[in-house]
Amino acid sequence: MTWSDEDISYLKKNYSTNPNMDEMCERLNRSRRAIQHKGARLGLSRHGHLSRVYPGRTPRKIIEKRYYEKNKERIYRRKINRMRELKKEMVKMLGGKCQKCGYNNKCFAVFDFHHQKGDKEGNVSLLLKNESRQKLLKEIKKCILLCANCHRELHHTGQ
Ligand SMILES: [Zn+2]
Description:
Shape: elongated
Distance between the termini: 62 Å
Strand content: 5-15%
Bound molecules: zinc ion
Structural class: mainly alpha
Number of domains: 2
Largest sheet: 2 strands, antiparallel
Number of strands: 2
């Protein structure tokens, strides 16, 4: 079902200000999902709308905060594990040994990703923390694998 101009202008007017999604569903004769999808396509956001106050109900932000407080150990560990797994995989992808001295200890923590000069777009250790796998892979492809010693030596001698 295509959106009429009238419906679109109604949505633009109401999407970010009308707290009542059900009312919009009824007026537009569409599901929540369809409305949210269209809203996103139009670049609208509902973050600014004033929520209805439900007596006795805990606001979502407080619930999220409580969830985080209760589970932060687990959340933190999950993040660290993701980083480690990714690094392990990237190290394997680049041959699993230092390209200068051949060091290939099982502990992947000793490895650095060295950028060949000039084409660095992102810091790999930061990318490992926060970026998508795709972005990381793109950056990793420009690197060679060095052990921490060789990496430091190389930067020290400025080669
Ligand atoms: Zn080395």
